[in-house]
Amino acid sequence: MKKLLLILLLTLFSATHSIAQAADIERGKQLWQQSYQGKAPYQQRSCESCHGRNLTKAGKHVKTNKVIKAMALSVNPTRYSDSKKVKKWFYRNCKWTMGRVCNAQEQADILAYLKSL
Fold first, then answer.
1. pTM of the prediction?
2. Domains of the chain, CATH where assigned
3. Which residues are paired to 88 by β-bridges?
Protein backbone atom coordinates (compact mmCIF):
# COMPACT_ATOMS: atom_id res chain seq x y z
CA MET A 1 0.00 0.00 0.00
CA LYS A 2 2.78 2.45 0.91
CA LYS A 3 4.62 1.58 -2.29
CA LEU A 4 1.51 2.24 -4.39
CA LEU A 5 0.94 5.57 -2.64
CA LEU A 6 4.56 6.57 -3.27
CA ILE A 7 4.26 5.69 -6.97
CA LEU A 8 1.05 7.70 -7.26
CA LEU A 9 2.62 10.72 -5.55
CA LEU A 10 5.71 10.57 -7.75
CA THR A 11 3.56 10.28 -10.88
CA LEU A 12 1.44 13.25 -9.81
CA PHE A 13 4.54 15.31 -8.96
CA SER A 14 6.26 14.57 -12.28
CA ALA A 15 3.09 15.42 -14.22
CA THR A 16 2.71 18.81 -12.53
CA HIS A 17 6.37 19.77 -12.09
CA SER A 18 8.23 19.26 -15.33
CA ILE A 19 11.98 19.57 -15.16
CA ALA A 20 13.16 22.76 -16.86
CA GLN A 21 15.23 22.42 -19.99
CA ALA A 22 18.60 24.07 -20.35
CA ALA A 23 18.47 27.63 -21.69
CA ASP A 24 18.43 27.67 -25.48
CA ILE A 25 19.74 30.61 -27.52
CA GLU A 26 17.67 29.75 -30.62
CA ARG A 27 14.42 29.49 -28.62
CA GLY A 28 15.29 32.83 -27.02
CA LYS A 29 15.85 34.41 -30.42
CA GLN A 30 12.49 33.08 -31.65
CA LEU A 31 10.69 34.45 -28.59
CA TRP A 32 12.45 37.79 -29.04
CA GLN A 33 11.44 38.12 -32.70
CA GLN A 34 7.92 36.67 -32.43
CA SER A 35 4.96 39.03 -32.85
CA TYR A 36 2.22 39.05 -30.24
CA GLN A 37 -1.28 40.51 -30.40
CA GLY A 38 -1.50 43.67 -28.32
CA LYS A 39 -4.13 46.29 -27.65
CA ALA A 40 -4.72 49.29 -29.92
CA PRO A 41 -2.90 51.38 -31.05
CA TYR A 42 0.05 48.97 -30.78
CA GLN A 43 -1.65 45.87 -32.22
CA GLN A 44 1.36 43.74 -33.16
CA ARG A 45 4.21 43.75 -30.67
CA SER A 46 7.53 42.05 -30.36
CA CYS A 47 10.61 42.71 -28.27
CA GLU A 48 12.07 44.27 -31.42
CA SER A 49 9.26 46.85 -31.47
CA CYS A 50 11.08 48.83 -28.80
CA HIS A 51 14.57 47.33 -28.62
CA GLY A 52 15.10 47.26 -32.39
CA ARG A 53 16.63 44.58 -34.62
CA ASN A 54 20.23 45.60 -33.97
CA LEU A 55 20.66 44.98 -30.27
CA THR A 56 24.12 46.55 -30.22
CA LYS A 57 22.38 49.92 -30.60
CA ALA A 58 19.91 51.79 -28.40
CA GLY A 59 16.20 51.27 -28.93
CA LYS A 60 13.19 53.48 -28.32
CA HIS A 61 9.94 52.54 -26.58
CA VAL A 62 7.08 52.79 -29.09
CA LYS A 63 4.62 54.25 -26.56
CA THR A 64 6.76 56.49 -24.33
CA ASN A 65 9.59 57.29 -26.79
CA LYS A 66 12.11 56.71 -23.99
CA VAL A 67 15.55 55.60 -25.12
CA ILE A 68 16.44 52.02 -24.18
CA LYS A 69 20.14 51.21 -23.81
CA ALA A 70 21.65 48.54 -26.03
CA MET A 71 20.69 45.02 -24.99
CA ALA A 72 23.78 43.23 -26.32
CA LEU A 73 26.12 42.16 -23.55
CA SER A 74 29.07 42.84 -25.87
CA VAL A 75 28.17 46.55 -25.88
CA ASN A 76 26.66 46.90 -22.44
CA PRO A 77 28.63 44.50 -20.15
CA THR A 78 26.73 45.36 -16.95
CA ARG A 79 23.30 45.03 -18.58
CA TYR A 80 22.34 41.82 -16.74
CA SER A 81 24.40 42.16 -13.56
CA ASP A 82 21.51 43.24 -11.30
CA SER A 83 19.15 40.28 -10.93
CA LYS A 84 16.40 42.43 -9.35
CA LYS A 85 16.35 44.73 -12.37
CA VAL A 86 16.37 41.81 -14.78
CA LYS A 87 13.43 40.23 -12.96
CA LYS A 88 11.53 43.53 -12.85
CA TRP A 89 11.98 44.23 -16.55
CA PHE A 90 11.09 40.68 -17.59
CA TYR A 91 7.88 41.02 -15.60
CA ARG A 92 6.94 44.39 -17.10
CA ASN A 93 8.05 43.75 -20.66
CA CYS A 94 6.58 40.27 -20.97
CA LYS A 95 3.22 41.52 -19.73
CA TRP A 96 3.27 44.47 -22.15
CA THR A 97 4.60 42.57 -25.15
CA MET A 98 3.17 39.06 -24.76
CA GLY A 99 0.15 39.95 -22.66
CA ARG A 100 1.33 37.63 -19.88
CA VAL A 101 4.25 36.96 -17.55
CA CYS A 102 7.09 34.95 -19.12
CA ASN A 103 7.75 31.63 -17.46
CA ALA A 104 11.20 30.74 -16.10
CA GLN A 105 12.14 28.74 -19.21
CA GLU A 106 11.26 31.63 -21.54
CA GLN A 107 13.24 34.05 -19.40
CA ALA A 108 16.27 31.74 -19.42
CA ASP A 109 16.04 31.30 -23.21
CA ILE A 110 15.71 35.04 -23.91
CA LEU A 111 18.55 35.85 -21.51
CA ALA A 112 20.76 33.22 -23.15
CA TYR A 113 20.05 34.81 -26.54
CA LEU A 114 20.78 38.34 -25.32
CA LYS A 115 23.97 37.29 -23.58
CA SER A 116 25.17 35.62 -26.78
CA LEU A 117 25.21 38.92 -28.68
1. 0.77
2. 23-115 (1.10.760.10)
3. none
Give φ, ψ of 58 to 5 degrees: -65, 150
CA distance 33 to 44: 12
Measured CA to CA, the distance from residue 38 to residue 24 in angstroms comes to 26
36-43 long-range contacts, Cβ below 8 Å, gap at least 24? 36/97, 36/98, 36/99, 37/99, 38/96, 38/97, 38/99
Mean of pLDDT values over 23-40: 90
pLDDT digits (tens, 9 = 90+) for 65-101: 999 999 998 999 999 999 999 999 999 999 989 999 9
